[in-house]
Amino acid sequence: MHPTGDAQPWYYLKDWHFVAEFPAAHVYETPVYFQDDWLNEFYDIQQHQAQQQAHSREQQQQGATSPEQQGAPSQQLLQQNIELGEIISINGSSPGTSSNSSNVMTSDYRFVYLGPAGSWTPLHSDVLRSYSWSANVVGRKRWWLLPPEHTHLLKDQHGQLPTDLLAPEAAAVWEHIIEVMQEAGDVLFVPSGWHHMVVNEVDTLSINHNWINGHNIHWSWALLQYEHEQVSQLLEDCRDTASPDEFEALVQKMLATNSGFNLQDFAGLLSTIIQARLQSVQQLQLQQQKQQAARAMPQTKTSLNPAAVPGYAQPPALPFASAAGQYQDSRQHQANSVQGSATGDTPVQMQLLHLVLDLSRAADVLAKVLQAYVDAWEANYAWWHKHATADAVSTALVDPIGPDRPAGDWPSWVHEALQLVQEVQRVVPVVTTRLYSYFILLGLATCVGEHHVSAFYGRNQLIKPGFSNYLVCGC
Fold this sequence. Notes:
Blueprint: E1 13-16, H1 18-21, H2 38-62, H3 75-83, E2 110-115, E3 120-124, E4 131-138, E5 141-146, E6 178-182, E7 187-190, E8 195-200, E9 204-211, H4 217-234, H5 244-259, H6 263-296, H7 320-324, H8 330-336, H9 346-387, H10 392-397, H11 412-442
Antiparallel strand pairs: 1-2, 2-9, 3-8, 4-7, 4-9, 5-6, 5-8
Helix pairs in contact: 2-6, 4-5, 4-9, 5-9, 6-9, 6-11, 9-11
């Protein structure tokens, strides 16, 4: 129904995973301003890994195959793996972080919207306080956006929000609403946590992405942590019907259903980003070493002009699409979008700086996720330790490990994530020290101190003081 009260129903195609369903189409390219996208990068990596695993399983089952048979995994095998609950993808869908995760399936957060005049989207904020951008291909949208500092004015006594910002019960925020008319060809950016309502003024086709990166990942974590607490309180009456581990598993399952992520899923996203950035750092450092070795080689006194060679012909210029060779995903865009007018290693150094910042932010939040998981587990066992003796039934359900769980008994994903945090602690100080020397030579460093890179963003240090790691910042 149109928010103005028109009872005419409208059919509205929303959340169409066009990119996932047609990966070879390449009908559009993400604007450069929005390419630093951890959320969809995570799903792309998971999708690629799932396809590789499915292909490997298929080859193991079928034995050696001919070149004509090698390729995408069969739909039958994909469906078999789905039924087994394993990490796999089918029809563009991508899994969570592990077979023990929430099994909440999604392909990505890249959507196409197609709706007639009068179709609309009720008041909402985007998943996990992600950013979003919307590009109108054709048509016109009217947006009403509410800054997050005024959201509390909309809540009723139960903390619920209305669906229509134009309704009388939303009158308290009318003076704070930002109204925008989006025409064909316009791209609109929605910041984290901004509630908004949208109406298609005419028949409209649009492209919409949600994305998270190092600038808003802490907002996503704050929301997920709050929702974990809310779910735990909601299920409080179930504590005496399950063991501590079973209770936390129930909390995590409901959290994933409500938010799209649980703590393990979110740790998986951060771990995937850290692994990708560590690999990129290693590749860039190798590239830098090769460049330095090339400059150190003795220069020849004579040079050959190819144009002076008899019969030489200038090769034709390749069109951009041919030179690109293939579609570049968000990770490649991130590296290629770094531009610099200086010569030498400037692009490499700037890319390294960006990677270090990503590593610092991701590892900082990942450490908090792990601590929250440990705290929740300890709280569950503390409750059992206090109440188990009062109820014989509950006593029989107590985990034999007891309240003091050995560190080695944590799930494997906790150990793997902790190892990644420790690897970031090792790598970042080394890289930032080298970058410090480079930027000092360029005259770009305005303040230097023994701080971790994450301190530049006003958040807690991941590495304790005393590592003699340096920060280059523009403060």
